[in-house]
């Protein structure tokens, strides 16, 4: 982690190393600052919530993470080294699902080309209800 921080132009500190290590190891890849704060402190690190906010902002500016604002005004972070992808977001439970669709990528490229643009990045979030929440809602309606 020290080399990653140095290469990103960030000062290497114990807290930054631990935070970056946590983000890289956690299974969930759509993390809120609160998730990160709770997870890192559950591992025995004593890092304050304000420090996590500040470090995530530093990581974003250094290009290590990408910050995404969802419709619910919830901010999530993901590692920047993930391949380009889009999101399906459940409005009921908040689940965020990554997906890649070559046809969407093609249409975006064609649209950009048609208008004389090149795409550096894009954000596509689709909102709905996941099948689990639909099923639960249907079961509630039956009873």
From TrEMBL:
Locations listed in the record: Cytoplasm
Name this polypeptide is given: Ferric uptake regulation protein
Cited CDD domains: Fur_like (cd07153)
GO CC terms in record: cytosol
Domain of life: Bacteria
Annotated residues for binding of Zn(2+): 90, 93, 130, 133
UniProt record, GO biological process: negative regulation of DNA-templated transcription; negative regulation of siderophore biosynthetic process
Xref: PANTHER family: FERRIC UPTAKE REGULATION PROTEIN (PTHR33202:SF2), ZINC UPTAKE REGULATION PROTEIN (PTHR33202)
Main location: cytoplasm
Organism of origin: Shewanella algicola
Cofactor(s) essential for the protein: Zn(2+); Mn(2+); Fe(2+)
Subunit-level organization: Homodimer.
Gene encoding the protein: fur
Record's keyword terms, sorted: Cytoplasm, DNA-binding, Iron, Metal-binding, Repressor, Transcription, Transcription regulation, Zinc
Membership in a protein family: Belongs to the Fur family.
Annotated Fe cation binding sites: 86, 105, 122
One Gene Ontology molecular-function label: transcription cis-regulatory region binding
Cofactor note: Binds 1 zinc ion per subunit. Binds 1 Mn(2+) or Fe(2+) ion per subunit.
């Amino acid at each position: 982690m020290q080399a990653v921080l140095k290469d990103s132009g960030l000062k290497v500190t114990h807290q930054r190393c631990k935070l970056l290590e946590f983000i890289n190891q956690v299974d969930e890849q759509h993390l809120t600052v609160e998730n990160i704060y709770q997870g890192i402190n559950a591992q025995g690190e004593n890092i304050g919530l304000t420090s996590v906010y500040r470090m995530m902002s530093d990581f974003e500016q250094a290009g290590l993470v990408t910050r995404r604002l969802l419709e619910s005004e919830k901010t999530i972070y993901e590692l920047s080294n993930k391949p380009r992808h889009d999101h399906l977001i459940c409005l009921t439970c908040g689940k965020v699902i990554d997906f890649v669709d070559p046809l969407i990528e093609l249409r975006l490229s064609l649209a950009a080309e048609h208008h004389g643009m090149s795409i550096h990045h894009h954000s596509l979030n689709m909102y709905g209800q996941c099948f689990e929440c639909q099923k639960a809602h249907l079961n509630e309606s039956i009873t």
